[in-house]
Amino acid sequence: MDLTAESHSIPLSDGNKIPLIGLGTYGNPRMTPKGTAYESVKVAIDAGYRHIDGALVYYNEHEVGQAMREKIADGSVKRGDIFYCGKLWNTFHNPELVRPTLERTLKTIQMDYVDLYIIEMPTAFKPGDTFYPKDDSGKIIYHETDLCATWEALEACKDAGLVKSLGVSNFNKRQLELILNKPGLKHKPVSNQVECHPYFTQPKLLEYCRQHGIVIVGYSPLGTSRDPFWVNLKCPPLLEDELLVSIAKKYNKTSAQVALRFNVQRGVVVIPKSFSPNRIRENFQIFDFCLSETEMKAVEGLNKNIRFVELLMWSDHPEYPFHDDY
């Protein structure tokens, strides 16, 4: 596949396409200055990004929407050039809440449809507008999950034209099979957004998804922040890896660009998050070099099967996805 900065989309099983690199927009809402996501999305679109990954629960979807609309208004891009992914949060799994929640995203970004809408986690929380509902002891209140019922409500949203493609995130094989084997399935999940990078290459899940026409979208493709609240610090910083650094030197690139190129070459979509204009531009510059087969194998060999993002605080949820091998 000949990938270029202008043409790097791959087909989805429903006939739509997804750009192989997107901008992740998550930032800690307590620590990220207002306007940061807005500025970052504008920089990204100017740099060539056409895929923006957002979520209601990031608290910045209004900024992301404003940036996309302004870039459409000034003629930089058309709406059809932009691929926007939104997410259904854990408190909105109840079928009757699915469409209103998607409509809330559409109202926030002020657009008629999203390109991809995904179930953010297979773990349902107590329904309602409190994103992290807690009991008196401070523990998150879980809710019984019926992933098939949630999926049927999403299918109705696609049929109504509110979303072009449907996918999932953080689903393991068993949970994917629940949907794929659902009686009367109308629309298959086209993607599964999961952690994926050279230290966590996801070979089994990648192979399973390939067999079923599901594209892997890799979050934290550069590793992640070192926030001890939710990040596994046993995993060493990915971008300091000697092999990645040495390959980067050879191509006059950064270790981050090598890590991104590795995934893109194996058909994994990457959504590196950055709010630094220089890094945003740098992360996109992965189409002017190519890793050899030997280098690809070597980077694959870095796999440690260690997650940075374990989400252990929810590991007692009946649908916590990471107890399974994949």
Detailed description of the structure:
One of its GO terms (biological process) is bile acid biosynthetic process. One of its GO terms (molecular function) is Delta4-3-oxosteroid 5beta-reductase activity. This is Aldo-keto reductase family 1 member D1-like. The record marks 87 as: Lowers pKa of active site Tyr. Belongs to the aldo/keto reductase family. This protein has 326 residues and is α/β, with parallel strands linked by helices. The chain has one domain: NADP-dependent oxidoreductase domain (TIM Barrel). The protein has ten helices and ten strands. The chain has helices at residues 36-47, 61-73, 95-109, 147-159, 173-180, 203-211, 242-251, 255-265, 277-284, 293-300, and strands at 9-11, 17-19, 23-24, 51-53, 83-88, 114-119, 163-169, 191-195, 215-219, 269-270. Strands 3-4-5-6-7-8-9-10 form an eight-stranded parallel β-sheet. Helix 6 links the parallel strand 8 (191-195) and strand 9 (215-219). Helix 1 crosses helix 2 and helix 7 (242-251) packs across helix 8. The chain is globular, with a radius of gyration of 19 Å. The mean pLDDT is 96.
